[in-house]
Amino acid sequence: MSKSCVCIISGGMDSALAAKMAEVEGYEIIALHFNYGQRTQQKELKCFRKIADSVKAIESYEIDIPFFEQLGASALTDKTIDIPTGGVEEGVPVTYVPFRNGIFLSIAAAVAEKHGAEALFIGVVEEDSSGYPDCRDAYIRKMQEAINLGTKDETHLEIKMPLVALKKSEIVQKSLALSVPLESTWSCYKEEELACGVCDSCRLRLNGFKEAGVKDPIPYI
After folding, report:
1. Secondary structure element (H or E) that encloses residue 217, with its range
2. Which parts of 55-136 fold into alpha helices (H)?
3. 88 burial class (0-12, 13-18, 19+ CB within 10 angstroms)?
4. Mean pLDDT value across the chain
5. How crowded is residue 180: how many other Cβ atoms within 10 Å of its Cβ?
6. CB 102 within 8 A of CB 46
7. Number of H helices, E strands in the chain
8. Closest CA to 50 of 178, 176, 182, 174
9. What is the chain's Cα-based Rg?
10. Domain coordinates of the chain in residue numbers?
11. Residue 159 has pLDDT above 90, yes or no
């Protein structure tokens, strides 16, 4: 009997690897992507579609969440707030989108319950992330508990975070080992044609490739 999971896939390197690891574990993939008014929305959507194809997703969902743009409060969704390019910020960065992963996981749980999926995969990274509070291992575990309390008795979802304790260089190495199409992933917060190379996400990605001793296949300004 086949088993299925919902994979939240942003179009970035981390979620692409998480989805590939789900495929390796023998899951049939239900791919899930969110358009929430982020600056690089169109590029991320194109990358999501390529990644979903690469893991042979049996179903794909592209969910629009327009209220994040209305809410603002993040440099990713409010164009009046500049994307920082000066290196790592102290505390929670302005690119944090309020409770984004909580909302994503709630929607993913609804999709999983519809399909009778056994697991959700999310590519959160705690140690080497941008300092987002909704990427913490302890938080995701509590969300799993809440989701299982708030769904049907026969629904038993496990939220899997296979990357949560990895460094970015380890993510690069594991992606290469599993033939993840890194050229079809995007991390830049600012640009959709050529990655800026100076936003926090680009810096983390480039440093990961540098430490892994390989060249990043995506184009940079």
Report:
1. none
2. 67-71, 100-115
3. exposed
4. 96
5. 23
6. no
7. 7, 5
8. 182
9. 16
10. 3-212
11. yes
Dihedrals φ, ψ of 28, to 5°? Answer: -80, 135
The alpha-helical segments, DSSP class H, found in 72-198 are 100-115, 137-149, 168-177
Domain spanning 3-212: which CATH class is it, in words? alpha beta
Q: How many Å apart are CA 97 and CA 135, to the nearest integer?
A: 12
How confident is the model over 2-57, as pLDDT tens digits?
899 999 999 999 999 999 999 999 999 999 999 999 999 999 999 999 999 999 99
Q: List the structure tokens of 206.
A: 């480039």
Specify the amino acid at residue 7: C
**Residue-wise burial string across 45-59, b where 16 or more C-beta atoms lie within 10 A, e elsewhere:** bebbbebbebbebeb
- Strand 119-121 relative to strand 158-160, pairing: parallel
Q: What does the block give as tokens for 50?
A: 């390529």
The identity of residue 16, as a single letter, is A
